[in-house]
Amino acid sequence: MNARRFFIGGNWKANGTPASVKQLIADLNSAKLEVDANKDVEVVCSPPFVYLAEVKQSLRSDFGVAAQNMWDKAPGAWTGETPTQMLTDMGIEWVVLGHSERRENCGETDQVVADKTKFAIEGGLSTMTCIGEKLEERESGETFNLLDRQLKPIAAALSEEDWDKVVLAYEPVWAIGTGKVATPDQAEEVHAYLRKWLADNVSKKVSDSVRILYGGSVNDKNSEELGRKPNIDGFLVGGASLKGDAFATIINSAKAAM
Ligand SMILES: O=C[C@H](O)COP(=O)(O)O
């Protein structure tokens, strides 16, 4: 029995229309789960900002809701931004940070990701903080060095207590949206490394308790096998989280980990 409650995040990214979002909410609300989302597994969906209020109001209450980003300043004169407090005021519990798409396209550095993670936690949010290597880094044997670089500022910014509010998502960039999933052994090797890194650089308690998710082309066919690996505590799912039935099957794969 794994002490870490399995976690399934659904990152809808910048996808959806008013009609498709309504349909997805309806499909998720009527999905037949074989696991208890109040007990066996934690499920959090992350819609685009414009649909957050609707999803928060209409999605089943045993699923949490996450923003895909937030502004790490108090409300005020920040045109176009969404401060943390606005999210917590509307009952949002989670935020996705450090996703490779934001690192790559929006210039978010390792330090920015660490600072935002700290700010989010202080503001009352929990974070799915993402890390992961690009293909060239993997091929040149730099994966673990890169992960060290991404983790160090996060560990420096957070107190031991803060880690209760963090799930780490390992997302190899070469596997995101490519259909090229890491093999269970490849993913487990990195997750075991991250768990040891946390023990060596933060504490044994944090290493034992932090959930480490795998993300990158997870679908309803491969989730069960990945979920059996001892250091994989769940998934951050992109494309397959937009299909109610596939996402429900991925949630049910938590059974394999129990
Ligand atoms: O946040 C989710 C990841 O980027 C994975 O996306 P994907 O499942 O479409 O590969």
From TrEMBL:
InterPro entries listed in its UniProt record: Aldolase_TIM, TIM_sf, TrioseP_Isoase_bac/euk, Triosephosphate_isomerase, Triosephosphate_isomerase_AS
Superkingdom of source: Eukaryota
Keyword RNA-binding: no
EC number per UniProt: 5.3.1.1
SUPFAM superfamilies cross-referenced by the UniProt entry: Triosephosphate isomerase (TIM) (SSF51351)
Entry GO MF terms: triose-phosphate isomerase activity
Catalytic activity line of the entry: D-glyceraldehyde 3-phosphate = dihydroxyacetone phosphate
Pathway in which this enzyme or protein is active: Carbohydrate biosynthesis; gluconeogenesis; Carbohydrate degradation; glycolysis; D-glyceraldehyde 3-phosphate from glycerone phosphate: step 1/1
One GO location term (cellular component): cytosol
Record's keyword terms, sorted: Gluconeogenesis, Glycolysis, Isomerase
Self-association and partners: Homodimer.
Assigned protein family: Belongs to the triosephosphate isomerase family.
Protein name: Triosephosphate isomerase
